[in-house]
Amino acid sequence: MLTHGIPKINRLMADEVKFADPFGLGPTVSLALATFAEVGCAILVMIGFKVRLAAIPLIITMLTAAFYAHWDDPFGKKELPLLYLICFLALLIQGGGNISIDGLFGKKKNIYKGPAL
């Protein structure tokens, strides 16, 4: 996602922002939200911190890319956002795993002291 998000930082700093406005917030706000998801949330996913929470903006961005920005394009153009969407949905459901920051520091001890079930 960083390869898609980092160029958006330069576009965000430009004088006149040209970007799709799917939610009616304005092209500058829409570009800022997409940049936040593709850079900020992607970094959180990469390091494994708050993975489930970081996956939500990425899912929304991929849904918007696939079904708004590339609606009239052939399936080959929609394929990458849909593939990313599936991956981020899996991260939302599963989380970052045992070796993520969340997994290393968020381990809960079993407080059940009764007989093994």
Number of domains: 1
Number of helices: 5
Structural class call reads mainly alpha
Strand elements, count: 0
How would you describe the shape? elongated
Task: Identify low-pLDDT runs.
Answer: none
What does the radius of gyration come to? 18 Å
Helix percentage range: 55-70%
Note down, in words, how this protein is organized.
By secondary structure, the protein is mostly helical. The chain has one domain (2-105). Helix content is 66%, strand content 0%. The chain has helices at residues 2-13, 27-47, 51-69, 75-94, 101-105. Helix 3 packs antiparallel against helix 4 (75-94).
Give a brief description:
By secondary structure, this protein is mainly α. 66% of the residues lie in helices and 0% in strands.
Which key terms come to mind for this protein?
mainly alpha; 117 residues; 0% strand; 5 helices
Blueprint (SSEs and pairs):
Elements: H1 2-13, H2 27-47, H3 51-69, H4 75-94, H5 101-105
Helix pairs in contact: 1-2, 2-3, 3-4
